Amino acid sequence: RPRVLSGIQPTAGSFHLGNYLGAVRQWVALQESHDAFYMVVDLHAITVPQDPKELSANTRLAVAQLLAAGLDPDRCTLFVQSHVPEHAQLAWVMNCLTGFGEASRMTQFKDKSARQGADRASVGLFTYPILQVADILLYQADEVPVGEDQRQHIELTRDLAERFNGRFGETFTIPKPYILKETGKIYDLQEPSIKMSKSASTPKGLINLLDEPKVSAKKVKSAVTDTDTVIRYDAENKPGVSNLLGIYSTLTGTSVAELERQYEGKLYGALKTDLAEVVVDFVTPFRDRTQQYLDDPETLDSILAKGAEKARSVAAETLSRTYERVGFLPAK
Ligand code: AQP
């Protein structure tokens, strides 16, 4: 079976609809066909200031949400990044292989550091794409299911893997991004030209899966559309409506073409009211399941212990091969 690897940050508490549709939903599907490794990336979370108590609580919450979304620990390896020390160890090697200019071109860093004020951004935030390179290469992943915003980091991963292999001999699998066209970028409900994001979106533009369902319904009903009245998919000229159609289509399994037929001659209000109901029907059981997993911390801990053990066995093998190739004297 080909291997997939992906991660999600525990930073915000609740996952948002973009995280779910862009990434986590694919993780659930891929565990059936792939040897799947999924992790909560707490090392990435500390690239911006964190409250220690909140970080550990949010890490548990992220695991509970992944299980609620449908990850099955018997079908995939689910773990917390800091439980596998090899991530930080391989990241150092990759840091030393990356050009400063090359790292400076990462647009995510530019966006995020601009939001924080360039002087206040940490060196960790600057090098986090390189930690991500290590995350992926450690597991010899064939594919990486992520949202469109991560494409550049997968490109960097491919470049560094090829550079290492070229310099030191075949060591790493060259991974491919796994990004779905329909859901690779879910847009902000108020500003459909930017991605839905925990840090850039306003509260009204962002659907948090763990919010009160009626709060999310209200946000859908007040989503920005356009002055035209036709319900038609046209990402360029009708980004708001197209975003709603994309979300609707993915959550219900109805094609966009079919939705266009269903809503022919109807007003935007009808589409929004129905989509609000679809969202409520999705988040209500999701919230309940998340709470059930949170209420059972022993089960959660044992899933993570098993996941870390399995992840470590793969990661340790890749790291020791890498160290050997680099020329580090083996410890006796
Ligand atoms: N709007 C989105 N559409 C599609 N996919 C998205 N992802 C995030 N936003 C969208 C994908 O979700 C996965 C996990 O992302 P993350 O751990 O990087 O989460 P994040 O960075 O906390 O999410 P945000 O909202 O993007 O935060 P900001 O912008 O504040 O950093 C990834 O696969 C990502 O592509």
Task: Name a few traits of the molecule.
332 residues, mainly alpha, two-stranded parallel ribbon, 55% helix, 7% strand, globular, binds adenosine-5'-tetraphosphate
Describe this structure in words.
With 332 residues, this protein is mostly helical. The chain contains 13 helices and five strands. The strands form two sheets. The chain has a three-stranded parallel β-sheet. The chain starts with a strand and ends in a 6-residue tail after the last helix. The model has no long low-confidence stretch (mean pLDDT 96).
List the helices and strands and how they pair.
Blueprint: E1 3-8, H1 17-30, E2 35-40, H2 42-45, H3 52-69, E3 76-80, H4 86-95, H5 100-104, H6 107-116, H7 123-138, E4 143-145, H8 151-168, E5 176-178, H9 213-221, H10 239-252, H11 256-262, H12 268-294, H13 297-326
Parallel strand pairs: 1-2, 2-3, 4-5
Bound molecules: adenosine-5'-tetraphosphate (AQP).
Brief account:
The protein has 13 helices and 5 strands. The mean pLDDT is 96.
Uncertain ranges: none
Query: For the report, how would you describe the main beta sheet?
Result: 3 strands, parallel
The amount of beta strand, in percent, is: 5-15%
Number of DSSP helical runs: 13
Q: What is the number of E strands? A: 5
The ordered H/E elements are: EHEHHEHHHHEHEHHHHH
Helix content: 40-55%
Question: Could you tell me the mean pLDDT?
Answer: 96
Please compute the radius of gyration using only Cα atoms.
21 Å
Distinct compounds present: adenosine-5'-tetraphosphate
Envelope shape:
globular
What is the SS-derived class? mainly alpha
Strand order of the largest sheet: 1-2-3
Q: Distance between the terminal alpha carbons, to the nearest Å? A: 35 Å
